[in-house]
Amino acid sequence: NAGVTQTPKFQVLKTGQSMTLQCAQDMNHEYMSWYRQDPGMGLRLIHYSVGAGITDQGEVPNGYNVSRSTTEDFPLRLLSAAPSQTSVYFCASSYSGSGRYEQYFGPGTRLTVT
Amino acid sequence: RKEVEQDPGPFNVPEGATVAFNCTYSNSASQSFFWYRQDCRKEPKLLMSVYSSGNEDGRFTAQLNRASQYISLLIRDSKLSDSATYLCVVITGGGNKLTFGTGTQLKVEL
């Protein structure tokens, strides 16, 4: 099993550009989520999904869109990048129910917006 | 007040020392609690769950104090390999909401 994979590992964008961060898992997990991690702020939940076709907002959803057309994939779209979106982005997955509590994280995408 | 608060450290300790971290949470309805470990520039990984009666996993002991709304992590006989950031995680809202603390950095030195 590859676990949770994320691409790209690094990305530099100019303000106003759009892009999609990819996330895939091969563990058949129902629950998937996106976090951003900033110094002094901890991990903050952006969006999450409890299954294919179902998504919901987390703590900091503005400027980001998600969709979940398959169990395996959960891409995160930045609509119009801003410098405030410079961060490290982690995708995570877990089983539903009580198994949700062990989150398996991908290696992260380091994004810089200039 | 933040929902989950941790002392950022760093805690610099010699190898073999015992070190303890606390994490306080503000929502009394919080249901479940965990400690994650994050190595520098890596993803977080689950270290251990925290049970109401306290629990131990080798050199690591986790405790929960619901009355005072804090959890703790005790590491005995510290190893160089324990150097990392330790994140406290609190679950509320029916299990969909995981709130991470900002982490406590531990540096174990020779």
Structure description:
The complex is a heterodimer of chains A (114) and B (110). In chain A, 0% of the residues lie in helices and 51% in strands. Chain A is built from no helices and 11 strands. In chain A, the strands form 2 sheets. In chain A, strands 2, 4, 5, 6, 9, 10 and 11 form a 7-stranded mixed beta sheet that branches. Chain A has a 4-stranded antiparallel beta sheet with strand order 1-3-8-7, with no helix packed on it. In chain A, a hairpin with a 3-residue loop joins strand 4 (31-38) and strand 5 (42-51). Chain A is globular and about 40 Å long. The mean pLDDT of chain A is 93. Helices cover 0% and strands 56% of the residues of chain B. In chain B, a hairpin with a 2-residue loop joins strand 6 (55-57) and strand 7 (60-65). Chain B has no helices and 11 strands. Chains A and B meet through strand 5 of A and strand 4, strand 5 and strand 10 of B.
Q: What is this structure, in a nutshell?
A:
The complex is a heterodimer of chains A (114) and B (110). Chain A is mainly beta and 114 residues long. Chain A has no helices and 11 strands.
Helical fraction of chain A equals: under 10%
Number of strands of chain B: 11
**What is the beta-strand fraction of chain A?**
over 45%
Radius of gyration of chain A using CA atoms only: 13 Å
Number of helices of chain B: 0
Number of E-state strands of chain A: 11
- How can the largest sheet of chain A be summarized? 7 strands, mixed
Structural class of chain B: mainly beta
Low-confidence stretches of chain A: none
Point out poorly predicted stretches of chain B.
none
Outline type of chain B = globular
Task: Give the termini separation of chain A.
Answer: 36 Å
**What letter string, H or E per element, gives the SSE order of chain A?**
EEEEEEEEEEE
